[in-house]
Structure formats: structure tokens, C-alpha cells
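Quick start: what a row looks like.
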Amino acid sequence: MDRRPAGGRRVDLELMRTPPPKERADAARNRAKVLDAAAALFARHGVETVTMDAVATEAGVGKGTLFRRFGDKAGLAVALLNERERELQDAILSGPAPLGPGDGAAAVPAPERLHAFADAYLDYVLDHLSLVRMSETASPGARYRIGAYGFWHRHLTILLDQCGDAVPDGEAVAHALLAVLGAEHLAAMVEGVGTERARATVHAFFDMARS
């Protein structure tokens, strides 16, 4: 179990944050054209029905360029989600309480930040459920190879460790809580019991983790 000072653990999170792509100006423009085209097509027709050929045509780029840059539709999904992930990570690191640390005038209790994370992450996933689901299930273990997973896990581990002896193994419990937030699992829950009940159940699991 990691009991390093909070400052050191914050540095860990800073290092794990999803980095913006480093590329030439022309490559950045082409990337933006492709992602804008993909987002528009996904919104109009649904993620499942849009082909890579359609994205290439909409963006005005060659199919070879598209496949070399993104690999497949799951790669496009990951690229589209990266910006949203960075926004959420920035809010966790330096945003207002309770999702972020606030202005530092008073410590935000770890349980409040845990539930704020659950709400913010649910908002993110449910708003982009088809994309997140595709990115997480493209291949076995894909979810855990996405860089953002390590960030979410580290953040939860830090907060669970701050709960003291109530959570004897924050690292393991963080994995269990993130399992509840998997897009495939959430899609099944929402289909079966609806969004409101799914959200309430996630919060109940976060409460049980500290009991």
C-alpha cells in the first residue's frame, strides 16, 4: 500500500495525465479535420454504422492516411475521447472542489471527492457511451492499455488511502470500483434498469467500498 505524502502522489497523477499529441502544424490540421468529420458522422448515424471509408470521404483525406494515423475505428474513438479525458483530468488535478482540490483553503474530505469523481466519470461515459465502449472493447484488455485508466486508478487509490483503515487495500479496491464504471457494464445497466438507477447503484458501490 502506498502511503507516500500527498504531494508526491499528485506528481504521479501529473505525469500520468493524457498528453496532447505532438505533431507538425499540417498534421494537426489534418487530424482535426478527421476527428471533426468522425464526430459529425457518429452523431448523425451512430458509431456502429459509420465506416472508415465514410470518415475518409467526409474529411477529404485518403483512406491510407486515415488507417496509418488511427489504425481502425477504435483508434478514432480513442483519439476523440482524449480531449474529454484531459478536461476531466485537469478538473481532478486543479479544478474546484469537490471534484478537484479547490483553492486549498480547506481539505476536501476524500469521500466527497470519491463521489464527485463517480458523478463526473459517469457524465463523461454516458455522454459518449458508444465511443467509450468501442475504445474499451476493441480487443481483449484494451481498456487497461488506455493511458487514462492508469490515471483514474491512481486517483481513486490516493483517495481510498486517505480514508484510512476503513479501506485496507486502496489499490485493489480502486480496480474494483473502476470495473463498475466500465462502459460495457454501464451499457448493460442502463439498458436493464435505466440511467437513474444505474447512477445510484454506482454511488452505493462507492459507499460500500469505505464500509
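That is the whole record. The chain has a mean pLDDT of 88. The longest helix spans residues 73-94.
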